[in-house]
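[SOLVED] Need 3D model of a two-part complex

Original post:
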Amino acid sequence: MELIAEGLACRRAGRLVFEGVSLRVGAGEAAVLRGPNGSGKSSLLRVLGGLIPPAAGTATLGGRPIAEGEAWRERVALAGHQDAVKPALTVRENLAGWAEMFGRPDRVDEALARFGLDALAEDPAGWCSAGQRRRLGLARLLVVDRPLWLLDEPTVSLDAASTEVFAGVVKAHCAAGGIAVAATHVALGFGGPEIRLEARRAGPPDAAAAEEGAAAADPFLGEDWA
Amino acid sequence: MNAALALLRRDLRLAFRIGGGGPLGLAFFLLAGLLAPLGAGPEQAALSRVAAGTIWTAALLACLLSLDRLFQADLEDGSLDWIALGPLPLEGAVLAKTAAHWLTTGLPLTLAAPVLAVMLALPEGALGTLTLALAIGTPALSLVGAVGAALTAGVRRGGLLLSVLVLPLYVPTLIFGAQATERAGLSLDPGPALLFLGAVTLLALAVAPFAAAAALRVNLR
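Solution:
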C-alpha cells in the first residue's frame, strides 16, 4: 500500500490554503510534514483524511482514489488537535466507545496499558491533565484498524517519556506495513521522508479568484439547483 | 449496525452524566405545562379547552431546548471527525444520535404526559389518544430538529437560530397532534389526524438523515 498525491490544492472559505502539493509515502514509512504556521499542514491532513474535498489534484491510497469518499475514509485514522474526549465519561468508557464503534473492543486494555493510562482507567476523563488527555486521544489509534495514520502535532503537551512511547507506537504501526503522515514543528523520534509546505503568500486573494473560489467551495452555491 | 448501537449507547450514557441534560427536558416539559394553569387561572372549563395545545407546545419547546448541543459538542471536541471517519455512514450516525435524543427527551415526556393532562383537566377520554399521538409525533420533532442542529453546529450560541429555523417546521406536527387529542376529547374519531401525524413523522424520517448529514459534511470542512 502506498499513499501518492499529485498537485493537491485546498481552498477553504474561498481562500487558497495551498496548491501543488505532491507526496509519495510507501508502506512502512512515516512521513513528516513541516512548514510555518498557517502554511496548511492541518488542512492538508484533513484533505488526506477525506474530510475536505481537494480543490485540485488527485490522491491514491493503495491504488484507490480519494474520490471514493466513504471507502477512502474507512482506511484513515486522524489524530487532530482535538482529542474527542468526553469529560463526563471515564477514560476507559471514552476509549471503549470508539473501539466499539470501529469494531475492535478487544484492544482497549492493551491500548490503555501502552499509553500508561491503565491506572486512570476508571477516573472521569475530565480529571485528566492536558498530557493525559492527549495520550487518551492518541490511544484511539490503537483501537481502530486503519492503515493510514494522519497525525496533527501529535506530541503537543506530551512529556519526554510519552513522546518516546508514541514514537514506538508509530514505528510498530509502520513495521506492520502501515503509513503515517505527521505534521510537526519538533523532533518526533520517528520519521522518514520530509514534506515541506511553503508559507502562504501574504495579502488578500484577488477578488475574482476569491469569488470563483467561494462559489466552488460553497456546496450551496457550487451546485446547480435549477 | 454495531457501530450505530455503540454510538447510541455512548450518547445515552452522556445524556445521564454531568452536563448531559437527559432528565432536564422532561423537567422543563412538566414545568412549562404547569405555567398554563398559573396564567389562565384554575377554572376547569377554561383549562381543559387549552390543555391539548399547551401540552403539545410544551413538548415542542422541551425537544427544541435539548437539541442545540446534539452535534455541536461533537464538532467542538473533534468527535465528529471520528464519527465521519468511522464505518457508519454519516446518515446512519445522524439516525443513531437522533434516536438517542428521542429516547432521552421524546419518550420520557410521552410517558409523563398523562400526569400533565390530569393537572390541565384534559377530558379523560383523550388521555390514551394524547399518549399515542405524542408517541407518533415526537420522533418527528427529534428528526426535524436534527437538521436544524446540524446546520447550526458551527454557530456559537446557535440555540436561537436553531429555534427560528426549526419551529416553523414543527407546525404540522403541532397541528395534527393537538387536533387528534382535541377530537378524542370531544368523542370524535381522532384517526385522520393521527394518520397525518404519522405521515409527517415518516416524511421526516425519510428526509432528515440525508439533510442533516449533508449539513454536517459542510461543517466538517
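Edit: Chain B has nine helices and no strands.
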